[in-house]
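User: Okay, second chain of the day. Same drill as before: sequence in, structure tokens out.
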Amino acid sequence: MILVDCRGLTCPQPVIRCRDSLAEGATALEILVDNDAARENVARFLRGRGFEVAWAAENGGFWRLTARAENQAVTDDEKTAAPEAASATRRETRTLVLVTTETLGRGDEELGGKLMANFLTTLPELGARLWRLVLLNGGVKLAARPGPALDALRNLAQNNVSVLVCGTCLAHYGLLEAKAVGETSNMLDIVTSLDLADKIIRP
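Assistant: Same drill. Structure tokens below.
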């Protein structure tokens, strides 16, 4: 079993180190992380590549994750590009929406919040072209309880739109436990998503 000590590292370094270990042929890993976002991101990354993952809290304020290969791993592009693999239309045209604030426009904050909720509610009008929604910085607040945009985000997720929520941002705002929709993600997934997208909308 290979030890990957990621204590003191922030997103996306723990995921990158695990990815590099897998590229070298590792089938069993022991990973040490010291923040919730890294623990969740590493576990999701490895499970997505066919690993069974368990973790335990250790004295000293860190977690020890153990991961063993079970199924055939998938490539980074295959994992990041999901779930559009089931749709030829999505493979041909991928529209990504990047949301970095909880309001839309500048001026009145209450109005901006209503406009953002309306914007998210209207996104399904893009049809099969709409591939992924990425929430960064203040945008992650939209995915946390309570929130006026939760119903719109849940509707997108239920209609096979991938919703990625920055784990580092959630941790910064103390919202990891309050997140109610989407996948807690990391900067590696987000950067790869931006690269894979055919079109990026930033409201």
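Helices lie at 13-23, 36-47, 76-81, 88-92, 109-122, 150-158, 167-172, 187-196.

User: Thanks, on to the next one.
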